[in-house]
Amino acid sequence: MLTVFFLPIVLINIGSVTVPWLLFALYMTSGIGMAGIGMGIMHDAIHGSYSKNKKVNKYLGYTMNLIGANATVWKIQHNVLHHTYTNIEGADDDINAPFFLRFSPHAKKNGLHRFQYLYIWFFYGFSTVSWVTAKDFIRLVRYKKMGFLNKKNEFRNELVKIIGWKLLYYSYALIIPLLVVPIAPWIIILAFLSMHFVTGSLISIVFQVAHIMPNTKFPIPDEDGIIEGDWFTHQLATTTNFSPKSRFFSWLIGGLNYQIEHHLLPNICHIHYKKLSNIVADTAREYGMPYNTKRTFAAAIMDHIGVLRRLGKIQAIPAP
Description:
By secondary structure, the chain is mainly α. Helix content is 61%, strand content 2%. The chain has 14 helices and two strands. The chain has helices at residues 2-13, 20-47, 54-61, 63-66, 71-84, 116-125, 127-145, 154-180, 185-208, 231-237, 247-252, 259-264, 273-286, 297-311; strands at residues 240-242, 292-294. The mean pLDDT is 94. The chain crosses the membrane at residues 118-138, 159-180, 186-207. This is Acyl-CoA desaturase.
C-alpha cells in the first residue's frame, strides 16, 4: 500500500507526466494507496496491533502523518471516543456531523436531511480534504478543552508537529507537482482532489456502513451517564460486519469488513479476524447476543442508504 501510494507520486514529482489523463490515473491510484495506508497500516499500528514491538507500531503509526492527517488526533478520536462510546450521540466523533448530515436518530433534524442520501457521497468523497486541512486543528483544540493533551506543552508541541507534517504532505503531494508538471495548474489541482475523492469515498463508506445500519443501535445514557448492558453487548449491538467471504476485499480494506471482531478485540491484528469471526459468531448465538452481518459490501451500502433516508424523515428521539 505504501508503494501504491508513493510510486505514482514519485512519477509525478520527477516531471515524467505530460498528459492530463495519466496525471489523473496516477493521482487516483495514489488515492487507493492512501486509503490502504489508513485502513491497513496506520489503523492497526495506532491500535498497537500491527506488531508486538511498540516501536514498530509507533513508527508505522506515523504513516498517518505522511498522508496528511495526524496520529495523535486520530488516536483520541478513534481509539478512545469511537471505540468507547460507539454510536452514542455527542460522544462518538464518527457520528458527530455538521448540520447538513444526520447519522443518529437522536441528532437534531432539519429539512436538508431528507436529501442527505443523495448528496452525502460528495461529502464522503471530499472528507479527507477537510481532514488534512482544517479538521485536525479543530479537533486538537476541542480535545484540549475535553481534558486531553493536558501535559506540560503537550498541546503546543502537537500543534507544531501537525503544522510540520502537513507542510511536508502538501509539499510533495501538490506544491512540487504544480512546479514541475507541464500541465495547467487547475488541472493538477483537480487531479489532486480526485486522489482525495477516491480515498475519502473508500474510507468513509467502509467505516460508516459498519455502524449506521438498520440493525445497529444508538444507545443513550441515563441521567447518571450509564449505558444499559455491558461493554461487549454494546459493541455487538452497534456494529455490523460485511462481505465476510471476500479475502481480497478484506485485504484491501485492512480487515475492516470484520468490524465486530475489531471492536471486541482492537489489540489483535486484522489478519486474524476471519478465523476469530467464527468463534465470536458462535459465542454470540450461544448467549443470545446480536451478531450483525451482511453478505456483500453492496448489500451493506444499500442498507446504509436506507438508514440515511430514514434518518432524513424521522424526528429526533429525545433522551429519557
